[in-house]
Design a protein that fits this description.
Layout lengths: L8 H42 L7 H16 L6 H4 L9 H12 L5 H31 L2 H13 L1 H6 L5 H17 L8 H25 L4 H12 L2 H7 L28 H23 L5 H23 L5 H10 L16 H11 L3 H10 L9 H11 L13 H13 L3 H24 L4 H18 L4 E5 L9 H4 L4 E5 L11 H7 L11 H7 L1 H14 L6 E5 H4 L2 H10 L1 E17 L2 E14 L6 H12 L1
Parallel strand pairs: 1-2, 1-3
Antiparallel strand pairs: 3-5, 4-5
Helix pairs in contact: 1-5, 2-4, 4-5, 5-6, 5-8, 5-18, 6-18, 8-9, 8-10, 9-10, 9-13, 10-17, 16-18, 24-26
Length: 633
């Protein structure tokens, strides 16, 4: 035996090296599995996007797809939001760059251009799901809570139906999840004390830049993001948790083979004790420095990234609008106006609708889990309810309400649902997950593949018509006689030989020319209409007769007309279209609507979208001359 070597010392060192190698291999396997799960989540969202074939809200097509298509190709319809500069390009630019990349690579087929924005949002939604999982795990101090939060997000029918659509609300929810993860992320393991200190000082600056970007995407997010940063940044216990890695600190001595803990002798502590104490000491030192500097915040350094982001995006907006604009100010001014002429023009709900109707309907079977999760959380953890509650109060104060406005609220609800699921036993948890999946899946599949699928399907048919006409060296012109942009536009047709005629439906608060409307829609003078859409549907029979007569006089009659069966059922409308030479080509199922009770039988009504084509619209020149000659004879 060598001098100074304890009995069995060599065996202990070999055993320690073996344990370290085993821990390294275990961590590598866990990291590999984690990366595979991350990839599967993103692929799941891409599959989700590929199975969404329906229309939910016109803003998806006209504020994202159409605007991005116009930036990438130079043509497309501009709605009143863009003509009055109340939309920022911060949300549209990534979509436009993706479409422009397809153009450069000569991959800009109509189908690829139509679905590229949704694919971008699907990838962003997958990243948001992963950020939400990491945030929930860090905030609640449990990886199980994070995993259950991810499952709740993936199983929700509304995130499947609306989360992958290219709404500004979807991007807002994505950025909020990124901000939450960034503000609550633990210090990455392996950082030196200097690296941890730099990370601590860099995080609030990056967070302020993300908050500014979220504000530009959707200005109504500012109360939520500021409150979230306060909740995560001002709590000393939360900051201490942020400064430590998520893995639990190993302060106990390793156990012997018989299961009893090895007792530390009067000598030096074990290596694990040294590592744990050093790490805790560094974390406490950084925490004390953070607490000491909290009273002397460098507000200039903290606000500079946010100001820089706002200035850069504002310059881009001014360049693209070709004038000095502040879209965020216009957005807030329009949405804070009161009266039927502002956002209330597009529908209203009572003040309690979000809490009583919308949120329970979205959460469905997860609604009881939200209450259980709030009850199981600690008082400090319940502070996470403050940001979504403030946003709900603000949204509820406005008469105009929409389901998609709740997308930024859902991540916080999923966190508490995950907290409730993590506290259940394995058997009860499995039962609850089966109930959630079985109740949400039918709703998600019906809404994303059946309900209101006609607008997207008719655009696919028009693409085929456009290809047929282009082979005959002709262009097509389409009259979209639907209410308020119920179909997509150029982004889903993507053809220079296509002309669209759309009924404008700008709100009255933006101003309107009553004399011009009276001249263009003389049949609707007594209806007090304020835009093209309202004037047309005030007297559709007379309006379409005058519309077709003027178009034939100018030799500019449309080749196709798209309208709903309810409008086609109007005797004067159908007679005028038939006399003009239009025949029904295709009829697409749109939705099933409740039409009240008919005696003892329920009044379900099937709504169809109809595509009409004018006789001889896509004939070759030779055939068209022959037909015209026989007509003259």
């Amino acid at each position: 035996m060598e001098v100074g070597t304890a009995p069995g010392g060599g065996e202990g060192e070999e055993r320690g090296e073996g344990e370290r190698e085993g821990n390294v291999l275990l961590r590598m396997r866990v990291a590999c599995i984690g990366r595979r799960i991350d990839v599967l989540v993103v692929l799941f969202r891409l599959l989700n996007a590929s199975l969404v074939w329906t229309q939910f809200d016109p803003d998806e097509f006209w504020q994202a797809h159409e605007a991005a298509h116009r930036l990438a190709f130079g043509y497309g319809h501009r709605t009143w939001e863009w003509t009055h500069a109340i939309r920022s390009h911060a949300h549209v630019l990534p979509l436009a760059l993706t479409i422009y990349l397809l153009r450069m690579l000569r991959l800009d087929s109509p189908a690829a251009v139509a679905w590229a924005p949704r694919a971008v949002q699907a990838i962003a939604s997958g990243a948001a799901d992963l950020c939400l999982r990491d945030f929930s795990a860090a905030y609640f101090g449990s990886a199980s809570v994070g995993n259950m939060t991810l499952i709740c997000s993936l199983c929700c029918w509304f995130t499947w139906y609306a989360g992958v659509r290219a709404y500004s609300s979807s991007m807002e929810a994505t950025l909020i999840c990124v901000i939450a993860k960034h503000m609550a992320a633990p210090v990455p393991a392996g950082y030196s004390a200097a690296g941890q200190r730099a990370w601590w000082h860099l995080r609030p600056r990056l967070g302020s830049a993300l908050i500014a970007l979220t504000f530009l995407v959707r200005p109504s997010s500012l109360p939520l993001t500021l409150t979230l940063s306060l909740v995560l940044g001002l709590s000393a216990s939360t900051r201490y948790q942020m400064l430590r890695p998520l893995e639990p600190t190993m302060t106990a001595a390793p156990s012997s083979k018989d299961g009893s803990a090895q007792k530390a002798s009067t000598g030096a502590p074990t290596g694990l004790h040294c590592v744990a104490e050093a790490r805790d000491s560094a974390a406490k030192t950084l925490l004390s420095e953070a607490d000491a500097s909290s009273s002397t915040v460098d507000w200039a350094a903290l606000c500079f990234p946010a100001v820089a982001v706002v200035c850069v995006v504002t310059l881009i907006d001014c360049a693209l609008y070709n004038r000095l604009v502040l879209p965020a100010i216009g957005f807030l001014r329009f949405n804070l106006q009161s009266g039927a002429g502002a956002s209330e023009y597009y529908g209203t709900h009572p003040w309690h609708w979000y809490v009583v109707g919308a949120l329970p309907a979205i959460l469905a079977a997860q609604a009881p889990l939200l209450a259980l999760g709030v009850r199981a959380a600690t008082p400090r953890q319940r502070w996470l309810l403050a940001p979504p509650t403030l946003l709900l109060l603000m949204l509820s104060s406005r008469p105009h309400k929409e389901l998609r406005f709740l997308l930024p609220v859902l991540p916080f609800a999923f966190c508490f649902c995950g907290r409730a699921l993590a506290g259940l036993g394995a058997r009860h948890r499995t039962t609850v997950l089966v109930i959630i999946a079985s109740t949400n899946a039918p709703i998600a599949l019906y809404l994303s593949m059946v309900h209101q699928r006609a607008p997207v399907a008719v655009m696919a048919a028009l693409r085929s018509e456009s290809v047929a006409c282009s082979s005959a060296t002709q262009s097509i012109s389409v009259d979209l006689l639907t209410r308020c942009h119920q179909t997509p536009g150029h982004a889903f047709l993507h053809g220079p030989n296509v002309t669209l005629s759309i009924l404008d439906c700008a709100p009255p608060s933006l101003g309107f020319d009553a004399a011009s409307l009276a001249q263009r829609f003389p049949e609707a003078r007594g209806s007090r209409c304020t835009n093209d859409c309202d004037c047309f549907f005030a007297a559709p029979g007379a309006a379409i007769r005058r519309r077709m007569r003027d178009a034939l006089r100018k030799h500019a009659a449309p080749s196709h007309v798209v309208l709903f069966d309810e409008l086609l059922a109007n005797a004067e409308v159908s007679r005028t279209l038939r006399k003009t030479g239009f025949r029904e080509v295709l009829r697409f199922f749109h939705a099933i609507e409740w039409d009240g009770w008919d005696g003892w039988s329920p009044g379900w009504r099937f709504v169809d979208l109809v595509l009409l084509r004018r006789r001889g619209a896509c004939a070759s020149k030779r055939k068209r001359r022959r037909r015209l000659g026989s007509h003259v004879e």
